[in-house]
Queue: 2 jobs
Job 1
Amino acid sequence: MKAVFLDRDGTIIKNVPYLNNPDEIEFLTGVIEGLKILVNNGFSLFVVTNQSGVSRGFIKIQKLEEIHTKIKNILRENGIDIKEIVYCPHHPDDNCNCRKPKTGMIDNILKKYKIDLRNSYLIGDKDEDIILAKNTGIKSISVSNEIKTSPDFKAKNFKEAVSWIIKDSSF
Ligand SMILES: [Mg+2]
Ligand SMILES: [Zn+2]
């Protein structure tokens, strides 16, 4: 399968620092429409997100799971299946192997699913996302202009990121 790995905060939903309340989930403009296009073009979707708020004591795992269940449910109602939402709960000082830009979260996904990395992409809003994509060997698209690294494409918004993927993947 070919996959698109998605960052969560600031990429598919509004960035609320240490989001801890499912009621505050707000999908960004064009995301639901864009994800539908990816699904219709045969991409499997995974969300990979750093959630250090867990180890900092700001978010309980149970709340985080509730938030992720709600995100999946809203998307499912729109015909969009998210295969998995994986998160790193650790603190930056923990030096774990899953906190982006380290590849642990994607490594685990690759153990479970047969994914063709040459035809897979990552969309994110931070340098850690773009570096993760480079570390994994997949193409990256940024949806923020506050990026210092060089993604394969700098999109103005999510829809533009999706359009680029569709065009790029058709070659
Ligand atoms: Mg983000
Ligand atoms: Zn971690």
Note: The chain has a mean pLDDT of 97.
Job 2
Amino acid sequence: MSMSALKLPNTEREDDATGGVALDTRELRRALGQFATGVAVVTTHERGGDPVGLTLSSFNTVSLDPPLILFSVARKARSLEHLLQAQSFAINILHREQEAISNRFAQSVATKWDGVDQRPGRTGAPLLPGALAHFECRCYAQHDGGDHVIFVGEVLRFDCEPIDAPLIFCRGQYRSLDGSR
Ligand SMILES: Cc1cc2nc3c(=O)[nH]c(=O)nc-3n(C[C@H](O)[C@H](O)[C@H](O)COP(=O)(O)O)c2cc1C
């Protein structure tokens, strides 16, 4: 069947004021949610020393030489100001049994670190035990990303578990590779 014969949801509408096309944000979010990702928590420290952490699905690889990764953070996130001033941060790639950690660090509350196990990485950013991989990074670049800020990190150090059990996020839900969710 050709694409033109498919019945598509209303994904375009005229913007009366400008005559341009404004996208339907709900449909856009739904379409973007078709892209399955892993789940990560980025961590760093406030200037005062308190830990900072935020759940991410926007993590991705950029370059091997130099070793660069990226993620984006919403301008409304409370963690943003701390990440903007941080010299270094760590990315913790979550195991499929770490859904509770993901939910905890997806809350915008000051108590999110209460009772959470952590160990200091070499750059000082807290590392979450049980994660499938840790990437300790120095801040390489920050870019405007609309209502988000795009962070590029240079990987200084990493470790990786020899297992294959990532937490997956797709269409607004957690999944796992073995189909148990
Ligand atoms: C699976 C998942 C993925 C998320 N990915 C991102 C992301 O990539 N960027 C972002 O800014 N927020 C993302 N969020 C939302 C933040 O984790 C959430 O807004 C958090 O409360 C921000 O905390 P803060 O306000 O204390 O910084 C995600 C949430 C979930 C559950």
Note: The two ends are 32 Å apart (CA to CA).
